[in-house]
Amino acid sequence: MENLAQTQGVTIVALAIFALVMVCIGVFSSLRTKTIDGFLLGNRSIGPWVSAFAYGTSYFSAVVFVGYAGQHGWNIGIGSLWIGIGNAVLGCLAAWWLLARRTRTMTHTLGSKTMPEFFEARYDSRGMKIFAAVVIFVFLVPYSAAVYNGLGNMFLAIFPNININVWMLVIAVLTGIYLILGGYVATAYTDFIQGIIMILGVFAMVIALVKTNAVGGFSNFLGNLAAVSDNGDGITGAQLTNIFGGRSFEFLCYNIMLTSFGTWGLPQMVQKYYAIKDTKSIKQATIISTVFSLIIGCGAYFVGSLSRLILHNTLPEGGVDNVIPRTLMTALGDANMVTTIILAVLLILLLSASMSTLSSIVLTSASAISVDLIPTLKKNAKPENQVITTRVLCLVFVALSYIFATMKISIIVNVMSFSWGIVSGTFIGAYIWGICWKGTTKAGAWAGMIAGFATVAVPTIIIACQNGSIQAAAKFAPQMGVAAMAVSIIVVPAVSLFTKKFSDGFLKKVFTVQEEDK
User: Which listed residue, 49, 205, 233, 241, has the most CB atoms within 10 A of its CB?
Assistant: First the structure.
């Protein structure tokens, strides 16, 4: 009991310091968010380090640490590290290398602040803008609720007598304050600080856990893991030490593709390219974001793979979502002040990861309404009111995501499962071909969007009707998401080859490279 009180005291002090820093950044950043371009993109003046960390911290939330790393580390073992490697190489290195420069240049040329605005300007289609905005709103706001749940479990492990809803409210209030005050500028600079905390926390977490008696150090952990016996779930040490995932190889491949290529079409990730200050900064940001992702992703899944040793091969109450929280509390919660401080830092790590992802999603969702829908549907909407409207909508969406998380509405919970796949599958083809190929047509872009959306929506409806529950379809969400992305990328050029092309004058305007982008 004394050790728990010590852990709680140190954690509260760390949280207070962290919250104060975040609020100060929000107040400072508010000076640079007087216009909608400043609020959403920081006036397109964000440097490479901040841009790279903003990308990485938006990529890895508490859902990755507490959910994915706990679940896949427990069930797959060492092979789950391939997800972290895939995220770094495909989700960061390849994405920045192939997409960042083209995206930054074209969105700057077209004056696009959001992905729906990009679709409207690139394809001369107001309807496409409205469709994209609706997809973003419907599928990203529910996803943000998952962020609360992932972090809430960790708070609950340290403060078992305080309701999880209280901690989710703390996350919502703190995120809302700095986001509403400073917009993307506040988000980007807090992401930079949060990214540093995440790196330090991951190193501390790995070293502290590996040194425990249960793991036995870097030289013995593989042998100890290989000795794990079947506890009734059919998983043995042979599975946990199989570098290629053993019987979970196919499942592993789908998750690598979904979580890596999925970022290529997610608006909250793509928007980081819009805001970087110049194309010269992209090369630096590419390297930085890749290294960051490699550290965070591999660190998270490595810890997940050690969880059976720490927890003595017994799944904790609460299931796989409680694997990482219980692993950390078991290894670090009943020890000295050093490990107590490490545990507090790890909680701040998870808080940082969650808040950065949450703020990116909320900002993207709010702008879909204030910038993309309202001016399109309301002809006399005043541009000067967009900043106020966006701030209000940020507050509303933070509140909505909190409500969804606390109420655990079944339809919302299940929509979360499809969010990455359906959003990325809808946008990825029209976005990538749009920035890379002049031959992409409006009909091709529409066909790719509809086909990607339908690849998830139609099977989901069929499976749900056959089984009487959408939960049955949710089990196939990774496969459907990967299929949607592949279909979208294939359909766009296929339809574009046989449909009406844009005029040379229009294409010249779209693909013009401004002097500062050369």
Answer: 205
DSSP label at 384?
Answer: G
Number of Cβ within 10 Å of residue 89's Cβ equals 16
Q: Do 390 and 453 fall within a single domain?
A: no
pLDDT at 408: 63
Q: For 172-228, how does the pLDDT look when each residue is reduced to its tens digit (9 = 90+)?
A: 888 788 778 777 777 778 778 878 888 888 888 888 888 888 888 888 888 888 888
- Domain boundary, last residue among 347, 379, 408: 408
User: Quick one: pLDDT at residue 233?
Assistant: 80
Q: How many domains does the chain have?
A: 2
Q: Are 64 and 209 in contact (CB under 8 A)?
A: no
User: String of b and e for 312-325 (b: at least 16 CB within 10 Å)?
Assistant: ebebbeeebbbbbb
Q: Where are the alpha helices (DSSP H) in 279-385?
A: 280-310, 323-332, 337-367, 374-377
Residues 500 and 402 in one domain: no
- Mark the ranges of the chain whose per-residue pLDDT is less than 50: 1, 515
pLDDT at residue number 1: 45
**117 and 170 fall within a common domain:** yes
Task: Report the first-to-last Cα separation within the chain, whole angstroms.
Answer: 63
Domain of 478, in residue numbers:
416-518
For residue 41, what are the contacts with CB-CB under 8 A and spacing of at least 6?
113, 184, 271, 274, 275
Place of tokens 């992905």: 115
| DSSP states of 434-463 | HHH-TT--HHHHHHHHHHHHHHHHHHHHHH
Mean pLDDT, the chain, whole residue set: 82
State CA 82 to chain mean position distance.
18
